[in-house]
Design a protein that fits this description.
Low-confidence stretches: 269-297
Radius of gyration: 23 Å
Strand content: under 5%
Keywords: Arsenical resistance, Cell membrane, Membrane, Transmembrane, Transmembrane helix
Order of helices and strands: HHHHHHHHHHHHHHHHHHHHHH
Protein name: Arsenical pump membrane protein
Number of helices: 22
InterPro entries: Arsenical_pump_ArsB (IPR000802)
Membrane topology: Multi-pass membrane protein
Shape: globular
Number of strands: 0
Mean pLDDT: 86
GO molecular function: antimonite secondary active transmembrane transporter activity; arsenite secondary active transmembrane transporter activity
Length: 460
Amino acid sequence: MLLAALAVFVVTLVLVVWQPRGLGIGWTALAGAAVALGLGVVHAGDVPTVVGIVWNATLTFVALVLISLLLDESGFFSWAALHVARWGRGRGRALFAAVVLLGAVVAALFANDGAALILTPIVVRIVLALRFPPAATLAFVMATGFVADSASVPLVVSNLVNIVTADHFGIGFTRYAAVMLPVGLVSVAASLVVLLLYFRRAIPRRYETEALPRPATAIEDPVVFRAGWIVLGLLLVGYLAADPLGVPLSAVAGAAAVALLAVAARRPAVLFRRSSSRGAAGTSPAGTDGPAGPGAAGRRIEVGRVVREAPWQIVLFSVGMYLVVYGLRNQGLTDELARLLGFFGEHGVLAAALGTGLVVAVLASVMNNLPTVLIAALAVSAVGASGPVHDAMVYASVIGADLGPKITPIGSLATLLWLHVLGRKGIHIGWGRYFRTGIVLTVPVLLVTLAALAGLLAAR
């Protein structure tokens, strides 16, 4: 049965990565789950267990991506990126650092996929406007994609795997942030240092800020833009209040997404009357590129299209893929992993953190981070450790699943989509080149972050 479970997992993963034409990742994973059920690798009674593990994480993730897409349509991220580009004051390395830090903030608040897939095209437009050479463009693009994952450590909502792990072990938003926010800051700092060192020769010394458009011209829908700030503030308050009230994060993120959708779906003729009258009065004539020009007059966001573009397939994928993974657990694979993690745990907090994090990172780079994090969570539970050693294993598994995928292109679905987006923009990164860069960037940041986690837990 173990061989059957492994075969179903491998074939399902290959098809998910390959994505045969006409099949989304969700339907492919569900097909794998159906085969696993048919072979008896998993049982009907496992279905509600798996759904109970993944429903909150996947719905939270979908809601956050919806919010990200709406804000992107309003010009929110382009506006922020243009401000950041100006903060560099013509210095290439300052611009590089600012872009990395912007990516870190976006990843922490909007999840890693949103940071990689939304910010990358914006960064590409900026470096092309600045007429950077291809090597510099590649440096900025790789940095944006890398920090999207390395900065997805600090909050529960920063990565889908964070939510899955936190739900499995009953870790609330505040408790998680108390540990992982400082660790996440270390990860971002280490990422910035490693990226600057690695790409130092490719980053231009100077650039002309005059080539950049004014940030105000990026705002496409000022009403959604302004509402976005309010929604983000309320979203943070909701996260903090969710723990004591026992409210799932998906309800908080879902309410925020619905609120922003309602604003985006309003009647423009009513809400833009003031903008139109200002233009008519000559404050900022129509046809100019100022904040009250065409952008501020409001390009209506196609709400239906945004909703359709949300990653609904990830819901089906989570249920289907995790059922396949649960079959590996049923056949004893997680018990073997638990023995290995238990060995690390016998040697203290540092060994538990480094050992667990590195093993999970390798597994995530080979078998994708989403199935890996469930296997890791089940294995850590089977170890039966307690105290700081248990905490080290739990949080190290998150770090490994967050950073490990950057080693290979197949480590996460977001990376595959990111490479596809770049290819459509004429930027081609081969898998061999990606691996050579990914492993050099990831390993030192992973080790420093795991060491910071061990030091924090040992000091508590």
